[in-house]
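Summary for the steering committee. One of the milestones for this cycle was to obtain a three-dimensional model of the protein with adenosine-5'-diphosphate bound, which we needed before selecting residues for the alanine scan. The sequence and ligand used are listed below.
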Amino acid sequence: MYDHLSILLVDDDAVDRMAVRRALRTAGIPSTVEEATDRDSALSALACTTFDVVLLDYRLPGSDGLTVLREMRDRGFSTPIIMLTGQGDEQLAVEMLRAGATDYLPKGMVSPDVLSQSISRALRVHRAERLAAQAEQALRVAAERQQFLAEASQYFVESLDLQTILDRLVELATRKLADGCAVDMLGEDGMITRVAVRVRDGDDQGREALLRATAAQSPQAPFGPPQVIESGQPLLYSAVDNVQDGEPEHGFLQPFVAACVRSMMVVPLRVRGQTLGAMTLISDASGRQYGEDDLMLAEDLAHRAAIALDNARLYREAQEAVRMRDAFLSVAAHELKTPLTTLYGNVQLLQRRAQREGNVSERDQRTLRIVFEQAGRLNRMITALLDLSRLQMGQFTIQKAPVDVVALTQRVVDELLPSLDRHTVTLAGELDPLFVMGDELRLEQVLQNLIQNGVKYSPDGGNVTVTIERTEQGALIAVSDAGIGIPQNSIPNLFRRFFRASNVQEHRISGIGVGLYVVHEIVTLHDGTISVESTEGVGTTFTVFLPFGDSDELHETVGAGTGGDAGA
Ligand code: ADP
């Protein structure tokens, strides 16, 4: 029932000690009993030997057992202690249990049975307490690690710069896991480069030199980081000097052994099935000996860094792709613009000459009209792309002067009408001059775009209404159509460049999704706003608000005759 027990018996009375020994023997408890007769000898015995149980008399010469019990617990001894008391005193018993006694027995009752039961209970309680403490400790360590890893992830993703992430990785590794740490990355050329080194405390030049000197240069070097990068599997050398001469990695580990490195791990930086590099961690001064738990923590840390590195790389690639797209668009639009302008101008010329001379057949006139319309379409698209690239480069500016938005709208509508056959455009609302401070050409572009969209997105024909309204602060221009409408989920993205609503495909209406972006930018440059209301299958209304702007400027320039139109 018992393993052999080592018992410390603290009692100054030789007869009582004999009685206890006899009880132990009779109870058949296999044990070695060491005796102490006072506080000092008891404490020094405890300091030298690990006991399974202490039997402690309450009455000791010079001090009472309760004080000695407290002292034992204060010094961190967790051995089960059974107090042997004189009389049955409940109050004292409670006090002893509070002070850390595992059990207590009135001396008069120390029979073999009672002693055996008390010892076995004390051992059981002690074992349960030890297990609970171990579980608690394991939980605390696990929670601490989880928190460390969560904070690490957060720390990594705060940056999109590769070197910053690597520096943070070695910083965290030396803070939590290692006396020294290095990271090697696999380059696109297949070479492995040591990209970050850090040692704890920062002043240990020997350790840093060692880490730099053992930098892996080539994937052909078979051990350490190259091996981990090649295999994607971690390495753990719990005791580097345990690797014997003759074993393959002995040579690789020698410099570490010579520098008193005790333990070492190399873990892969893996993400999406790829190994980007490896992290080497060493322990020396701390005396830490790495085990499986440390390896798991290091792997997890490296994996989180790899995710952040991968994100940073993807972000950089995306940025580069956007930059290249913008550069391409800008060059393409510029290059296309010149021949197109020539083409457009010459078709116009040809059309006018045909009208004047009247010698072109009806069929050829139709062909000319189609060429003219298509060249016009191309021209608008290229102008939009050029505007886009100017906006990207911050080269898009506006020149403000008083503009009569009623007259401007009328002109835009008049110019558009001849090219329409299945659509009509009507003007409503304010018909008196209404001046705002703005760039006439750019505002013309806004109106053209919105009205042309109203026509384009009403494939079955119909009317587009432009309603102008004067408000306290400026002009409201609403362009409404009864066309295909815009799905609600597309509306929030409508003014983003290259965005097209999800229903344009089914209606086979072509476009490049740049016009509204440019419109929005122009309106914003005028300190105005643009909003949209739409129901799919019913129609759409875009509403632009243009503020009067600096009213003094407007009054001065427009003069007394039209001053009222400035909304003053
Ligand atoms: P594009 O017409 O070349 O696609 P725009 O930037 O002018 O580009 O418009 C962006 C998107 O907004 C269009 O693709 C379309 O989905 C939607 N849209 C714009 N105006 C209307 C409208 N009047 N009716 C329905 N959808 C519209």
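Key point for the committee: The chain has a mean pLDDT of 89.
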